[in-house]
Amino acid sequence: MTKTTKCPICNNQAKWGYYSGPYGIEEEHVNCQKCGYYYEFAYGNYLEAVRGKEYIWHHTTKYTNPIFKRIKRDLFMARRNWKKLRKNYNKNP
Ligand SMILES: [Zn+2]
Questions:
Q1: Which of 18, 25, 30, 60 is the most buried (most CB within 10 A)?
Q2: Ligand 1 mean position to 36 CA, how many Å?
Q3: Mind spelling out the 3-state secondary structure of the chain?
């Protein structure tokens, strides 16, 4: 099944595909062609790519793991850079 979802970085419509089985969502992926954001979940493993950096974790990874702070910070920076880029782009088309 393919739908679209709002990209967490650039707010554009990103491709969103998922497959759900008897236990809920088993596979999910988000792919934004505007800014390159990528997210994937498959059978308990997660992969998130922000600005070319990949983060991989597992559903058993504790929420205190520093990886989540790094992802949050990178998402924040990516959003900020995206806005800056757009501003400059709009100023000088
Ligand atoms: Zn995006």
A1: 30
A2: 6
A3: CEEEEECCCCCCEEEEEEEEECCEEEEEEEECCCCCCEEEEECCEEEEEECCEEEEEECCCCCCCHHHHHHHHHHHHHHHHHHHHHHHHHHCC
Interval between CA 31 and ligand 1 midpoint (Å): 8
pLDDT at 1: 64
Q: In the prediction, which pLDDT does 87 show?
A: 80
* Token representation of residue 8: 């967490």
Length of the chain: 93
Spatial separation of the C-alpha atoms in residues 31 and 14, rounded to whole Å: 6
* Distance in Å, CA 17 to ligand 1 centroid: 15
* Amino acid at site 83: K
Which of 8, 58, 55 lies closest to 31 in space, CA to CA? 8
Average pLDDT in the chain: 92
State the average pLDDT over residues 20-44.
93
